[in-house]
Structures are given as structure tokens and as C-alpha cells.
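Backbone-to-sequence.
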């Protein structure tokens, strides 16, 4: 497995991974936005097949945001999410960022566990953050 930068031929794979990872799925417009304007978009590639990705956007000079992270179902619990996230964190550090933020569903324990393992802390609850009314935790990692 290699972690590499996104290339335009990966778009379909990312849409497919999103479709099975998020319910409701990320709108194609959102995916288009972070593919086009993201400061970092990394994919996990196994033999030419994309099995996961992470999208990062810069919020300001000091802050980046993880806007999306997903791994294909049959490849989960193998350390791929950890590898994508740790690579993204290193690249934020290299760009001189001081902080990474993200929002995650309060019910999404797998992702929260991963983020906590990597040092993120819950700093706030954002009520009704998602379209279906679920709250989000705001999590922060100080770099
Ligand atoms: N239950 C509990 N803890 C879990 C689970 C789970 N099902 N999956 C991962 N974790 C935690 C564990 O602490 C795990 O460490 P361990 O295996 O040593 O116990 C740790 O995360 C690292 O696991 P990885 O194998 O590196 O993570 P994985 O490759 O499975 O990817 C991910 C995790 C990305 C959250 C995956 O489950 C996924 O794609 N979920 C659906 C999409 C999603 O929820 N994305 C995050 C949304 S928030 C956002 O995008 C900002």
C-alpha cells in the first residue's frame, strides 16, 4: 500500500468510497470542491486501486481542516486510516500549520477513536451540524 497524491483519474474511486462510507453521502459538489481547491488530497493505493482517501483544506495561515476521510469497507481496521491521517498531519506540519480541526458525528465512534489515538481532543459540540439534525464534535489537534 502506498499513500500518494490524488490524480484526476481517482475521482470515480473517491465517489465510490464516499457512497459506501457516508449516509447521506457527500454531495458530488462538495467532493468536487475539495478535489479542486483542497490543500492536500491523498489516496491509499493498493496495486493501482484506491481504497481510501483524506482531504485537507487550509482555513487560514495557521489552521488546516480535515474535510473528509474514508476507507473502503473491506480494507478497514488494517491501519490505512491511521496512515492517511498521520501523513496528512505531517504535511500540515511541513506547511507550517499550528492546528488541525475537524467535525465528526457524535455517533461516529470508530472515527472519534482514530482521531483521539492521533492526539485530537473534543473541544466543542456543534448542535444540528448535519442535515439530518445530528450534532458534531469539533476536534482539534495542536501541532
Ligand atoms: N470501532 C472502534 N474503533 C475503531 C473502529 C471501529 N469500527 N475502526 C477504527 N477504530 C479506531 C481504533 O482505535 C483503531 O485502532 P485499533 O485497530 O488498533 O484498535 C484506530 O481507529 C485506527 O484504525 P485504522 O485501521 O487505522 O482505521 P481504518 O482504516 O479502519 O479507517 C475510518 C477508520 C476512516 C474512520 C473508517 O472506519 C471509515 O472509513 N469510516 C466511514 C467514514 C467515516 O466515518 N469517516 C470519518 C468521518 S469524519 C471526517 O471525515 C472529518
Amino acid at each position: 500500500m502506498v499513500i500518494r497524491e490524488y490524480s484526476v483519474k481517482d475521482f470515480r474511486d473517491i465517489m465510490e468510497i464516499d457512497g459506501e462510507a457516508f449516509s447521506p453521502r457527500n454531495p458530488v459538489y462538495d467532493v468536487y470542491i475539495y478535489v479542486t481547491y483542497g490543500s492536500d488530497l491523498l489516496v491509499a493505493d493498493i496495486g493501482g486501486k484506491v481504497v481510501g482517501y483524506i482531504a485537507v483544506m487550509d482555513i487560514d495561515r495557521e489552521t488546516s481542516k480535515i474535510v473528509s476521510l474514508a476507507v473502503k469497507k473491506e480494507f478497514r481496521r488494517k491501519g490505512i486510516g491511521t496512515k492517511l491521517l498521520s501523513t496528512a498531519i505531517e504535511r500540515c506540519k511541513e506547511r507550517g500549520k499550528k492546528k488541525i480541526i475537524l467535525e465528526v458525528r457524535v455517533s461516529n465512534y470508530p472515527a472519534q477513536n482514530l482521531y483521539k489515538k492521533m492526539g485530537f481532543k473534543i473541544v466543542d459540540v456543534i448542535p444540528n451540524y448535519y442535515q439530518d439534525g445530528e450534532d458534531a464534535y469539533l476536534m482539534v489537534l495542536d501541532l
